[in-house]
Amino acid sequence: MAYISQQDKKDLAPGIKRVLNKYGMKGSIAIKHYSSLVVNLQKGPIDFDMDGYTSVNVYHIDKHYTGIAKDFLNELVTAMKGTKWFDKSDIMTDYFHTAYYININVGKWNKPYVLDIENLGSSMLPKTKEVATLEELVGVEQAAKLRELGMIKEGV
């Protein structure tokens, strides 16, 4: 049975706060029903490409996020797991046994996440590269498909 105590939260808090501070994020740490460790992100320089509120699927971060958002969320999950987290679940036999669940909310339903553009540091910005051709940008196959569909106007 998943269980996390207030003492466990207190033990994990320094690592979680270290990750939040590293990325310039503001957030709170909570426990929900003594089974989930929750981090609510309130404000920061990371654009999660959403409208005010979202609940992060911690099992598919690499699939749904890119760049600095992906790096931050992966580090945050690692800090939230700490050293005591385990998952011995086996969904094939309908057996669920984990230390505790991990939830990350970007904003809240009644208080949206605030993108803090003023505090964007140069280290937080994604690296950009100038390209000369469409092929360099999206690859040869994708460029051919875009031209075939008439989505690219040549010589403009």
Spell out the blueprint of helices and strands:
Blueprint: H1 6-22, E1 26-32, E2 36-44, E3 54-56, H2 61-64, H3 67-81, E4 101-106, E5 114-115, H4 134-138, H5 140-148
Parallel strand pairs: 2-4, 2-5
Antiparallel strand pairs: 1-2, 3-4
What class do helices, strands and sheet pairing give? alpha/beta
Mean pLDDT comes to 88
Beta-strand portion reads: 15-25%
- N-to-C SSE string, H for helix and E for strand: HEEEHHEEHH
Radius of gyration: 20 Å
- Main pleated-sheet profile: 5 strands, mixed
Q: Provide a count of the helices.
A: 5
Number of self-contained structural domains? 2
Coarse shape: extended
Kindly state the number of beta strands.
5
Low-confidence stretches: none
- How far the N terminus sits from the C terminus, by CA atoms, comes to 62 Å
Tell me roughly what share of residues is in helical segments: 25-40%
Descriptive notes:
This protein is α/β, with parallel strands linked by helices and 156 residues long. The chain folds into 2 domains: 114 residues, no CATH class; 31 residues, no CATH class. The chain contains 5 helices and 5 strands, in the order αβββααββαα. Strands 1, 2, 3, 4 and 5 form a 5-stranded mixed beta sheet that branches. A hairpin with a 3-residue loop joins β1 and β2. It is extended.
